[in-house]
Amino acid sequence: MMTKGGRKVVKKTKLAVIGVGARGKGLMTNLARMEDVEIIAVCDRFMDRAEAARDTALELTGLSPRLHKDWHDVLDEPGLEGVIVATPWYLHIPVTIAAMKKGIRPGSEVGGAFDVQDCWKLIDTYEETGTPAMLLENRCWNRDAMLVTALAKAGLFGEIVACSMGYMHDLRKQVGGDKDPHHGRVREYLERNCNNYATHPLGPCAKLLGINRGNRITSLVAISSKAAGMADYVSRQPGHPLAGSSWKQGDITNVILTLAHGETIHLTLDTTLPRRYAHGFFVHGTRGMFNGEKREVFIDGMHDEEQPSELDNLDSFRDQYEDPIWRTFNPDDNAAHGGTDYLTLRAFVESIQKQTEPPIDVYDMATWKAVTPLSEQSIAHGGHPVDFPDFTRGMWLRR
Ligand SMILES: NC(=O)c1ccc[n+]([C@@H]2O[C@H](COP(=O)([O-])OP(=O)(O)OC[C@H]3O[C@@H](n4cnc5c(N)ncnc54)[C@H](O)[C@@H]3O)[C@@H](O)[C@H]2O)c1
Q1: Are residues 102 and 215 in the same domain?
Q2: Which of 191, 230, 373, 381 is spaced 20 to 30 A from 103 at the CA atom?
Q3: Measured from the CA of 138, which atom of ligand 1 is nearest?
Q4: pLDDT grade, residue 170 (50/70/90)?
């Protein structure tokens, strides 16, 4: 912040948003409310969406971002410092790479890669250009996950042996294109069978187990159930355009990752059957565990297996172990994803302002996104183990 004639002048970080569907518009709105950010451009292949995003920015800030239909043009915006990539998954890596080549910092939305080679291209581009990129994995700022990570790092669970988490969210309306027939997930579920959303559950587990920072994933196995949920769902919607389609994506996909120090991570994708939203977060160590279904911390010697469960006792650990970020941050009741979107975007903006590496960097992005194509390979071969590449080229030991 600077002062001019006694007035406070806040230097604004110039950002653009590519893909202003439901998610991109939400992120843009969050950013437009920040006093140290200016949205200078928005882009969507549908101009009415770009115009709606522009109108929201104008209403919130009094400034009107320029509109683009072609994302390449956004990267030629003068003074652009960072770009949010909120398109469907197939564009995340191409836009991220193109932005890095122009010296513009990309913040990519979550979702898997198509090909492991694309993940290597992310690494090569970063190492050639030196432009940092961030994966906007908002679950890493989940308050409970951060607290449980602090308990694990403080040793309360002893030596960690296994973690699990899932993306368990009934997406049948989105996948069926009921809300928007152009929605990016529609084709994915018709054409592919993989864990397409592994970054959501992997992010918090990777932070807890130090993946790419002293630990790494060495192998993966994946199994998918049959795909019955979408066919049943669309068959019950009269006149649904996808009735009779054959869906490739299995309803429940399980991935197990093995790490260099012997831990396992179990990731579940469960998005096409009826259910309530859940994270399914479990952490298990030699001295205790966290059971996310009950929000229960169980410590050897402190809790007794013979006694009734201490449901929801996680909060009793807050005073001592709460992450500093959540001691001061107080999201309002309407904050998207409980405030985690705001915290993720602040980390992105502040890494640009301070010219630092973002907390989820290009090595994490490549690693977490690679679970998708590697799980696809494993599933296609009946759950065969697949070697996991070391995207850090050996640096995981020293990072
Ligand atoms: N982190 C989270 O909690 C969270 C939540 C929801 C969605 N997401 C992710 O955000 C991304 C966007 O999600 P969505 O639900 O808005 O998806 P979507 O498929 O509805 O929309 C993305 C937008 O990108 C636009 N688009 C598509 N191709 C384009 C192109 N070539 N050029 C410019 N614009 C283009 C579409 O028109 C659409 O408006 C996805 O990657 C999704 O996985 C993340």
Answers
A1: no
A2: 373
A3: 1
A4: very high
pLDDT at res. 274: 98
My answer on whether 324 and 219 are in the same domain is yes
Q: How many distinct structural domains can be found in the chain?
A: 2
Q: Quick: pLDDT tens for 266-309.
A: 999 999 999 999 999 999 999 999 999 999 999 999 998 888 88
Residues 297 and 155 in one domain: yes
43 ligand 1 Cβ < 6 A: yes
Q: Which residue has the tokens 């800030």?
A: 61
Q: What is the 3-state secondary structure (H, E, C) of the chain?
A: CEEECCEEECCCEEEEEECCCHHHHHHHHHHHCCCCEEEEEEECCCHHHHHHHHHHHHHHHCCCCEEECCHHHHCCCCCCCEEEECCCHHHHHHHHHHHHHCCCEEEECCCCCCCHHHHHHHHHHHHHHCCCCEECCHHHHCHHHHHHHHHHHCCCCCCEEEEEEEEECCCHHHHCCCCCCCCCHHHHHHHCCCCCCCHHHHHHHHHHHCECCCECEEEEEEEECCCCHHHHHHHCCCCCCCCCCCCCCCCEEEEEEEECCCCEEEEEEECCCCCCCECCCEEEECCEEEECCCCEEEEECCECCCCCCCCCHHHHHHHHHCCHHHHHCCCCCCCHHHHHHHHHHHHHHHHHHCCCCCCCCHHHHHHHHHHHHHHHHHHHCCCCCEECCCCCCCHHHCC
Q: 186 is in which domain, residue-wise?
A: 139-331+361-397
The Å distance, Cα 145 to ligand 1 centre, comes to: 25
- Pocket probe for ligand 1: among 28, 74, 87, the residue whose CB has the most ligand atoms within 8 Å is 87
